[in-house]
């Protein structure tokens, strides 16, 4: 129950960050950024795109990270999709791009770090980052940043050059915060190392 509560808190903080970015017309990286880009270009909400895009990553997570991590990730993705969809009930407002990018990056960074510390993620690049940290000891913040920059560059045309640059600033802030907690994240995952399902069946 304590872990579920922690996942709810992590998703709540992250969802506020995503809403900040959306109302600043700034994108972020990973599957969240791709979902934001698609929400700008279509009539479907961020939450709908975010849930659908993550489905292939659930399979990878189950095979490489174990079923407990995968279930926590599915719970987190579902919660974030629901929480961000509540934005439709808020009155219309706009946030200046620069402070919105910084505030959104900070909130998403702390939200993701808290989820990582509680052995959950928000799918996509988060799963790959934690897998690479677990497998090779790579910095999850830097891995996320690399994926995020690619997504932001691809989607920059939907928000413009200035907002695209602010998007890179936002994900740099997010990545810095995640990197700050990298040793604690590694320790939390090493404390409950789980053998992936395929390895269990092979033994």
UniProtKB/TrEMBL annotation:
Where found in the cell? Cell membrane
Q: How does it sit in the membrane?
A: Multi-pass membrane protein
Q: List, alphabetically, the InterPro entries matched.
A: UPF0750_membrane, YitT
Q: Does the keyword Transmembrane helix apply?
A: yes
Query: What keywords does the record list, in alphabetical order?
Result: Cell membrane, Membrane, Transmembrane, Transmembrane helix
Residue stretches spanning the membrane: 40-60, 67-86, 92-117, 145-178
GO terms under cellular component = plasma membrane
**Major place of residence:** membrane
- At the top level, the lineage of the source is Bacteria
PANTHER family noted in UniProt: UPF0750 MEMBRANE PROTEIN YITT, UPF0750 MEMBRANE PROTEIN YITT-RELATED
What's the protein here called? YitT family protein
Species in which this protein is naturally found:
Priestia koreensis
